Amino acid sequence: MICLDRVGKTNGTTVHEYTERDVILYHLGIGAGAGDQEFVYEGVHGGLKVCPTFAVVPMFEPMRNLLPQFNVPFRSILHGEQWISMERPIPPRGTFLTKASVPAVYDKGKAALLIVETETTDNAGKPLFRTRASLFCQGLGGFGGDPGPKSQAPDPPKDRGPDFEISQDTHESQAVLYRLSGDLNPLHVDPMAASFAGFPRPILHGLCTFGFVGRAVLRGTCGNRVERLRELGVRFTSPVYPGETITTQGWDTGGGIHRLRVACKAREVLSNAYALVEEV
Could you give the residue numbers annotated as active site? Predict the structure, then answer.
């Protein structure tokens, strides 16, 4: 049974040191290639850029540390939603100081929904970004708790086409490469673990898809100016399998908000997806 004693409490600070090598490896994991010099080459003019979705990397360790405190087996979790909010661009090397907490656990019947929030600063204590993740913990619901709020973001406009549309191919080894950034859930590499979770074969990490979408938004709306992407939020609705093509469409709905539709062929893989982009 899930343990609720630590709801609302904050874990100690997790220290995560990283270099340009880690940033480049992450970018390769979310589909960047030789043609994306500003994201894969530390010697590029103007310096290496860091995709804002790199903000998910320092949450892996504190999240793994929180799960045993709530009596949640690592193999039971499925990522439900992800959100990041940027205070400023991420430097290409440095130290992250991250504090994590679980502000709520909701009862979804067959599963518990664990909400994990993190706040990350640099080594001097200057804020960098915040994240929030929703994790479905299979088999741990039914404890009589609050089912949680129902949230539904507005759909993209139906009366006009998207302002941008970008298709990105994943390759068969995408999940194997992405997991080297620290997202080690075995269902992305181990066929038996994938089968246990109800999938016919290992699926791509939701956060890898999240990174692909972040790159598409940067290219489609920001001219790859990483400082302009301020927020990105999604709900994971259908798995992506390595080798599939991810198509991201975006609609500018005003005020810097871009509603997103993300699909593999006709199958929607993300919903409630939006980006907040600093207007120029």
Answer: 183, 188, 203, 206
